[in-house]
Design brief:
The strands form 3 sheets. A 5-stranded antiparallel β-sheet has the order 1-2-12-8-9, covered by helices on one side. The protein has helices at residues 2-34, 77-82, 126-132, 180-189, 192-197, 230-241, and strands spanning 59-60, 63-69, 74-76, 100-110, 113-119, 140-150, 157-169, 206-212, 218-225, 249-250, 256-257, 259-267. The protein has 6 helices and 12 strands. The chain folds into 3 domains: 1-35; 59-69 and 172-267, TolA/TonB C-terminal domain, CATH 3.30.2420; 74-169.
Length: 270
Amino acid sequence: MKTLGLITSSMIGFLAVSLYAINSTTKVAEAQCCEPKKEQIEIVDCFDIESIIGNTQLKNDRLFYSVVRKRFVSVTKTQLYNAKYIDDIVPNYPSTWIDEYQKVVIVFVHDGYEEKITGPDNKITPAQLERLQKMEVDDHIKIEVDYRMRNVITEQLEASGMRVAIGIMPATEAYYPDGYEALITYLTKNSEKEIKALKLSEVPVATVEFTINEKGKATNTKLLQSSQNDKVDELLIKLIEKMPDWQPATDENGAPVPQKFEFRIGVDMC
């Protein structure tokens, strides 16, 4: 009888646990199926671009418009001031893979001029830190790491390296007051009719660089890549120069600072 009682109790316990597990699984499934779906974000990934300032790209008769930042991997000046190791600057830095450092070179790029300072390992040297703290928004640095890592099969140390370009971002980025979609709508409405009127079979990808200055105005407009049509190039430059004011970028103290962007337009950019 005691054995039968134990078996009965075990079976009841097993059924209770099973029913609980089934009920829990059902609740999880219900929660998953009933969760509102997150809005799908269309990312412009057909370029070797470095970042997106918005989450939408509008298409008009196969003519694409986009506005992007100048850098992909980026850090703020505050991050640079507080950096002690390369790991603090480079996202997902593979420090656990590295068995032995050969050298770490930081290349400082400002207005087209480069300055290199070398260190022995991933710890930022005083000279490197001093130079990092002088970097301005839209400057960039290139980090070149030469190291040796152990081959898991042969257990031998093998030479390897990594190269990363990093842009200096403002604490708060510049933005178009009415949002990214409104910006693309403005660019579209003020250019597509004129471009279509030229009856071009296609518009090759064109890129215009511009700076949003401390007053939120588009300045320093420069054609980086021509559309191969002078009239279109002229139209694109004027389009950016006459663009409504943005909210300017700001530094860590809240003071406005300039920030560079790129406007890109073309047929079948992807």
